[in-house]
Amino acid sequence: MATRMTWWVLLGALAVVPGQGPVAAQSADGDMVPNPSAEVGAAQPEGWTSRGKATFAWGGEAAHDGQRSLKIRYSDVDAEWSSSPFKVDGSYATEYPWVVVSAWVKTERTSGLTYLRISWWRDGQEIGEGRTAPLPHGTADWARVRLAALPAAGATEGRVGLCSQGNVGAAWFDDVATSLTTLPASRHSLGQGEPVASPYQAFLDEYPKASWAADALERLLALDEAAGRWEDVVDRLRLRAKAAAAAERAD
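-> structure tokens emitted (251 positions)
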């Protein structure tokens, strides 16, 4: 079985198109998720809903910034704090809408999976997701976790998930930031009813040297792993190693 290697790259504000000049990415102003630091609320934090079977808490036991954070402990298979939905355009008619989520996470004696995810929705149904690699087991101080993802084709809404699965220990989440950056989609006959089978592959085809290409490749790798397409996993690992070697030579 292929081994997944997680890597991180700095996400730039410009994409370089082969044979063209830089293409400016358009960024949305403000945070897309209300109450990102979970400071506001009465009995429950405004804009956040606990889902799944676990011990959920919202309070001042630990906080990265401010007075409160969101906590999950003793989680079962699928437990998360889920944000209010935000609008996305998964039609890919004119642009690639990259959604970037980050959060600060603190863990204590974790034994299962702790991660961030973005779930994609249409007509009240979840149709896809993007997620980070799980954090290491054990106890760790606050660390920033980041995820960049494209909506599933046809999605109209997204939700941030602060997730814990099979954890006896605890995880705290704080200071969530969610932003949107769009790049033009120009090489597709979109907007004419033609479906996008793979937004990430379409993006790589159009922007192979963009600063977001590494994120597209990482998401494709995760999708191939989840589907058990191990030959594709090996091919993408080779492609990623080749790109990393080229970047080192450029430096």
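Helices lie at 199-206, 213-227, 230-250.
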